[in-house]
Design brief:
The longest helix is centred in the middle third of the chain and has 41 residues. Helix 8 packs parallel to helix 11 and helix 9 packs across helix 15. The protein has about 525 residues and is α+β, with helices and mostly antiparallel strands. About 45% of the residues lie in helices and about 25% in strands. The strands form four sheets. The protein has a five-stranded antiparallel β-sheet with strand order 2-1-5-4-3, sandwiched between helices. Strands 7-6-10-9-8 form a five-stranded antiparallel β-sheet, sandwiched between helices.
Length: about 525
């Protein structure tokens, strides 16, 4: 384009220095262009550009699926008729990289020749933004429609949209069934506090608009008028310049039922705790009375009285844990963090602790009743038919709260067919003394420990019990003294030194057996016990 006068020169200047890509083509071939269009297609000189046509800088197909050559000719034909046409087009750079352009082609006459002036404006960023917005819109619509939570949009007068979960929750078939309804139309006439649903709904909506968001519990009703509990979160949003309410609803009927059960269970637990506290107080009082009489008894009787502390301690531990767990579950409930899983765990734990406390209190009561009957080398414990493995497992279970706090595990190796008649309470006392000793002495400096118990048959009425832990062991100097009365290395923490003495007397006298101990410092301890039973079944 050669300037012939000042006006032409001015136009030439605009043409050459425009930020948009400008070019002129005739019969589909470029005959002139500016620097901006060269930069758009990543070329350096006009010579590389002139002689090519718009199709040379276009992909084979446009986004609508039409061939670029076919669609370009249609645009040129329109330009010939209309004089100028504006449209969006995908062009390609010289290396084939596509980019979006807004194109204006204008029919012009120069030197009596009909030419086409084209203006290319790069709109790649704009199209990228449009694409991202479209993707976000599609994503939101997918999340909205496919969410498992019930979602709806309310414009201040009526529901204007909802998802499938909303329809399923309320029992409606289509969105048309909901559109136009007010929240009061899907609520009973009155809420749980006695206020009308319409009054309270309007109040909560206004609060949401003022605060931006609000969460609460609400009674809704299904299309068949069945009432159910929901948790509702309202959020203020602006759609098409209209303030709307975006609502998320979740059915919490099961949660409310659990809350009722929890309330009832807590009341029962409170009554149970009070009863257990009274029982423990009575047991402590009985223990104090018995301790006054121990001075006149021999060392074994003193040891037996001492052993009352073990089941009482287990009971106190169990009660304390139950109280702590009750407080924790109540706190979770008050904070709204309680779910069905935590509640079931609490119920299972409460049942387990109740069994542990009950069994230990029964044992304590039995020890007290039998207290006066015990003498050195003699006992009048009742003989019973038991399965050795089942009974030892029960003892281990009863002591579970003690071993749990020490992070100690117990394994048992015993045949299932050892059915015998013996004095099971004595075996229980022996095992209790040994396990408590491991926890208090053997594992006192450890983060965890393990106890292995093995019972094997020596003859029809004689068995061997091997008890082994991996605690800190016993020194060579102290090992010969462990069965002596009142010998203890833990007197500062309340140790009396009677536990193993009582164990020794039970095994050697009442059960007609023997007990030996093998141990080294930092190598654990092993007790090898042999004992007799009255009869084999």
């Amino acid at each position: 384009m050669k300037p012939t006068n000042k006006q032409d020169y001015g136009l030439e200047t605009v043409f050459q220095h425009s930020k948009d890509g400008l070019a002129i083509f005739k019969d589909g071939i470029f005959i002139d262009c500016n620097q901006s269009i060269l930069e758009l297609v990543s070329l350096t000189t006009k010579a590389e550009f002139i002689g090519l046509g718009p199709i040379d800088f276009s992909p084979e197909f446009q986004p609508d699926g039409r061939r670029s050559v076919e669609k370009a000719q249609e645009m040129i034909n329109r330009c010939q008729i209309e004089g100028s046409v504006r449209f969006e087009w995908i062009h390609t750079k010289s290396d084939g990289t596509p980019f979006w352009c807004e194109v204006i082609i204008t029919k012009m006459t120069l030197n009596e020749e009909v030419l086409i002036h084209t203006n290319w404006h790069d709109i790649s960023e704009k199209k990228d933004l449009e694409l991202k917005l479209a993707e976000q819109k599609e994503l939101f619509e997918t999340l909205f429609n496919e969410s498992k939570d019930s979602l709806s949009i309310y414009d201040g007068q009526r529901y204007i949209d909802c998802n499938k979960a909303f329809l399923n929750m309320f029992g409606y078939a289509t969105k048309q069934d909901i559109t136009g309804l007010h929240p009061k139309d899907v609520s009973p006439e009155f809420q749980f506090d006695g206020r009308t649903s319409q009054e309270k709904a309007n109040e909560l909506i206004q609060t949401c608009i003022a605060q931006g968001s609000i969460q609460f519990e609400w009674l809704h009703k299904k299309s068949d008028n069945r009432v159910f509990w929901t948790e509702v979160i309202l959020t203020k949003v602006v759609l098409n310049n209209v303030v709307c309410i975006y609502a998320i609803m979740r059915d919490i009927s099961e949660k409310k039922q659990l809350e009722l059960q929890l309330h009832q269970r807590n009341a029962e637990l409170d009554r149970s705790n009070n009863s257990l506290r009274n029982t423990v107080a009575e047991l402590k009082e009985a223990r104090d009375q018995l301790l006054d009489k121990m001075a006149s008894l021999n060392l074994l009787v003193a040891g037996v009285a001492h052993e009352i502390n073990t089941p009482v301690g287990v009971s106190l531990t169990g009660i304390t844990q139950l109280i702590e767990e009750t407080a924790a579950i109540r706190k979770s409930y008050q904070q709204g963090a309680l779910d069905e899983t935590h509640f079931e765990e609490f119920i299972n734990s409460a049942d387990t602790l109740s069994v542990i406390v009950n069994k230990n209190l029964e044992r304590t009561a039995h020890l007290i009743r039998s207290f006066k009957k015990i003498a050195v080398g003699q006992t009048s414990e009742e003989e019973k038919a038991i399965n050795l493995k089942d009974y030892v497992e029960e003892v281990i279970f009863i002591l579970g709260s003690i071993t749990h706090k020490a992070n100690a595990s117990i394994s048992l190796n015993c045949a299932n067919n050892y059915h015998v008649v013996t004095q099971p309470e004595l075996l229980s006392q022996v095992l209790t003394n040994l396990i408590v000793n491991s926890v208090v002495h053997g594992f006192s400096d450890n983060k965890s420990g393990h106890i292995a118990i093995s019972i094997t048959e020596q003859s029809a009425t004689r068995f061997q019990l091997s008890y082994q832990d991996d605690g800190k062991g016993i020194s060579k100097a102290n090992l010969p003294k462990i069965f002596d009365p009142f010998f203890t290395t833990n007197r500062a923490n309340g140790g009396t030194g009677l536990g193993l003495n009582v164990t020794y007397n039970i095994i050697t006298n009442a059960l007609g057996g023997s007990i030996t101990c093998l141990s080294e410092v930092n190598a654990g301890v092993q007790f090898i016990i042999e004992f007799n039973v009255k009869q084999r079944l």
